[in-house]
Amino acid sequence: MKIRVLALSALLAISSSALAEDIKERTIRFGHLVQPGHPLALGVQKFADLVSEKSGGKIKVREFGGSVLGSESQQMSAVQGGVQQMFVPATTTASALVKEFSLIDTPFAFQNTSQVDALLGGPFGTSLQERLPERGIVGMGFWETGFRNFTNNRQPIIKMEDMRGLKTRVMGDPLFLDSFKALGTNPVPMAFGELYGALESGALDAEENPYSIVLTSKFYEVQKYMSETNHVYTANLVMMSKRFWDQLSDTEKQILSEAAAEAGEYQRTISREKAKVARDQLIANGMEINSVPQDSLDQMRAATDPVADGFANSYDPALVDLYRSEMKRIRAAYP
Questions:
Q1: E strands within 12-156?
Q2: Rounded to whole angstroms, how far apart are CA atoms 70 and 65?
């Protein structure tokens, strides 16, 4: 028995040694756009802790927040080129690589987060990520920024006509631009890092973002009204450079994949908890928040549906069919 125990100990020591040799000293530059305390930043920090733990401290993750590594398009290009190892942009940004990511941004598509989780955690989310490697990107799963609401300096939005003519910052995705034109606004594509200054100067009247971004970016200082439209759910794609990924051992790939999945569960949970807290804090900071009547939301949906359908007609029919069949199933399962 003693000999067997010693032999087992020796075998485990050899396995641990071999495992350690599979993990090299590496540093991952992980960029994002938001400020400290935002759920995305907290997700990156959780990922860094998990990677350090799982790699015995050999793989280090350095966080670069607040757009210090550049705009959405700049950081995505850097990840494609292997200059930057990781980035967590909105899936709206990822649509520049695979346009069908825009299906996630279909206005008024989701009624709750259970529907979101079922779509992105199922075959549709997997199919989207499978198209990324040919673009120099490896998808590491979906995190979230959450449901978006409309803010402005003119008046509460009670009916769709209240949005008419407002100069509104939107992300540069064509679906966003055309959807906000259909809502009657004057949409202006602009990098996120430039938004606060544009609102402060009056160059823009309005913007649209989830509670946590409005809070951590201090938009309540330059916007008076928030109207709870919940018009789009923003998912975030955790991107890794394929050039970097291809250099990794199988052990390192497993460590990073497990850490991204575990950090994702944490990030989505804390994002939803913080959304409720952020709403209260925005009110405490003087922002006036109002609900939008259901008939007004129905009118907005009717205005944007033709836009979404028009874009869908230009996408891969197989992915559109998968999206529509999954959404039909999910809405029935999670009403």
A1: 26-31, 59-64, 86-87, 137-147, 149-152
A2: 10
pTM of the model: 0.82
- pLDDT tens digit sequence for 221-261: 999 999 999 999 999 999 999 999 999 999 999 999 999 99
In three-state secondary structure terms, 224 is: coil
Q: Where are the domains of the chain?
A: 24-333
- How would you write 226-288 as a 3-class SS string? EEECCCCEEEEEEEEEHHHHCCCCHHHHHHHHHHHHHHHHHHHHHHHHHHHHHHHHHHHCCCE
Among 3.40.50.12780, 3.40.50.2300, 3.40.190.170, 3.10.450.50, what is the CATH number of 24-333?
3.40.190.170
The count of other CB atoms within 10 Å of the CB of residue 164 is: 11
Q: Give φ, ψ of 269 to 5 degrees.
A: -65, -50
Cα Rg, the chain, nearest whole Å: 22
pLDDT in tens, 7-48: 444 444 434 444 566 899 999 999 998 888 889 999 999 999
Query: Which of helix, strand or coil describes residue 168?
Result: strand
The phi, psi pair for 61, rounded to 5°, reads -115, 120
